[in-house]
Every structure is written in C-alpha cells, then in structure tokens.
Amino acid sequence: MHMKQSLCYPIFRSKYVSLDELFGVASEIGYAAVELWDRGDDLEEVVGTAKAHGLVVASMTGHASLPDGLNKRSNHDRIEAELKDSIDIAASYAIPGLICFSGNRQPYQSELEAIEATADGLRRIAPYAEERGVNLNVELLNSKVNHPGYQCDHTAWGVAVCERVNSPRVKLLYDIYHMQIMEGDIIRTIRENIKWIGHFHTAGNPGRNDMDDTQELNYAGICRAIAATGYDLYVGHEFVPKGDLIEAIRATFSLCDQG
Prior knowledge:
Layout: E1 4-8, H1 9-12, H2 19-29, E2 33-35, H3 43-52, E3 56-61, H4 76-92, E4 97-100, H5 111-132, E5 135-139, H6 155-165, E6 170-175, H7 176-182, H8 186-193, E7 197-202, H9 219-228, E8 234-237, H10 245-256
Parallel strand pairs: 1-2, 1-8, 2-3, 3-4, 4-5, 5-6, 6-7, 7-8
Helix pairs in contact: 2-10, 4-5, 5-6, 8-9
C-alpha cells in the first residue's frame, strides 16, 4: 500500500500561487489530501477547492490554545464544547481527524497526574467522536526547540494517555520532526506504537525545511516503514520550503511515495 500524502495548507500558502493552482498541482502530483490548522473563515473555500481537485481535507485543529490544553482540568468544559463543535464540522466535511493538545506542564502536577487529567478530558468527548466517526489526535511536539514547556513531548507519554482512554477514536499525531528532536529511534517507535497513531507530520531536522540531504532523517526509509505497517490514514507534510514551492512539494512526494 502506497502512502497517502497530504499538504498542510497554511504552511504552503503563497501570494504567488493561488489556492486553486496549489491544489490542482498537488492533485496532479499525486497528493491525496490537504490539511488546515484551524477552522477559520476560509474553511468552506478550502474544502470546496480541495473537493474540486479530488483531494480530501485530512485534518484540522480541534480546540483552541496549544499551551493551555487538556492537562488542566479547569479547561475540560471549554475544550469539550470546542471539540464537540469541531467534531460536527469535521463530520459534515468528511474530515477524518482533529488535532488536540496536552498543554504545557503545570508546576502543581506530576507527570502521572497530568496524564490522568488529559485522559479524563478526552474520555468526556470520546463517545461523541466515536459516534461521528472522527479521530481525536493528540499531537506530539518537541519542548526543546519549538514549544518550551509542552507536556506531550514523548511518545510514551502520549501512548499512556491513549491507553487510559481506550477509545478507537483517541490516537496520536506523531510528528516525525518533533520526535526526532526529543527521542529519535523513529522507525522502531512507529512500528511499536502504530495502533495508537492516527496521523503523521513531517519536516527535515534541523531547520524544519525540506527533507533533503542537508538534514538527518531518512524519510524514504521512514515512509517505507510506515507503509509496511498497513497504516492507511495520512502523512502530512509540514515543512518550510527553502526554494520553489512547487518543486519542493513535487520532490517531497517522490521521496515519500513508498509502499
């Protein structure tokens, strides 16, 4: 099975390339999907343009505030309401996944207390996600470079949350760039935890640029390993191109077209 590849639209938005042109070229190259970071005013336009070019919208953010997230019980009412609205939107547009965030570490919480709080927050909304057929993907992010203080910064932490919720709709967004920074051992970790992964993001490390030979990750090997697991959802590219946008997304598709 070949990988289903996606483009994170906000990072590839350009004043030189229209939405229609970008999605048209992406479809021609072989991309299966695009992604959003939020559900802003352009949601309907993005979904409509994607559909016109045979693309799916694979993912969008489910609730507000990356640093102020599910590990704070005082946020659970707010996040539950936001996720319910997002689940309804996702279901209506056939968007399979929503991004969720642990939030930043709190001085009054142990790691175990934070895991339990995050799981309890997700457990409140998981039945509705199951009913509507939408995945809640808790994002793994690095706390070393890009997101100081972020708590779900290791795969084992995120898996512990998923195991406690024990829902087929609560999974992880495994960001390869972020997890290379925090723990490495990418292929083994993916193989051992694929049942908990509902989405992937990519970028070259260091720099968060193209997956070329100036960075340290072997994306052909990583994508081949993902495909070999039977994973059938999406791998979304979230890198900042150093050169021409269209050339960058074409080269990336070719590199990651493994199966």
